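Posting this for the archive.
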Amino acid sequence: MLRKILSAFKQYIKFKPFSYLNSISWFYRDFQKLKAEKNPGFKISDEYLYPCLTDKTTNTPLDHVYFYQNAWAASKIFSYKPSRHFDIASQAGFVGIVSQFVPTTMVDIRPIDVKLNGLDFLEADILKLPIADNSLESVSSICVVEHIGLGRYGDSVDAYGSEKAIVELKRITKSGGKILFTVPIDKESRIYFNAHRAFTRQHIIEHFKDCILMEEKYIYGDRMFDEYSADKGFGTGLFYFQKN
């Protein structure tokens, strides 16, 4: 039992020692109460302790950016129903869900070890996609392009990595094809090295000037808005383009 408690101790003792001590207290009380109730359908023992001490929260933990942008992108794909969708390096969980409604090819430089009906995988670099020009009807890249060329994920440092990635996304999309694209936005375009870049709205519009902007949304804090606001500072821009 002590070994399991010490293992849980490492989760956050350095940052919240008093919370940890309080958690150990209720953990022990709950364990003793459950043992005393003696449900014969389950074996309970010190041997099987698995302390989870950080999950008693008043609100459901949530990454608002990924919650909003994944829901937004999925809703677009489900609404226009492509015969096949291609995702370039977005969050695997998002791609997996989309693949259960629309046949999907996930493209990433890092392989994913899963097998799922409706989902194919293509190992490739976003800067050198082995996909023919003007060939895809539906493409997404959700919070990816801002990282390209910063070395964070083992890629080479490239001052123009984001620009080159956008060129590739447009190159593989056919005329009339859809591009779902999200990146951090800010009051000026800047690099938060080595986490990501941030872009102004105009910076993004300029890079997609050969496309029609079908819809745009912006996430600031824990809410999604219809309009870009430089005064709100850092956020996330969600862009739905159709290639001319």
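The chain has a mean pLDDT of 93. The domain at 64-243 is CATH 3.40.50.150 (Rossmann fold).
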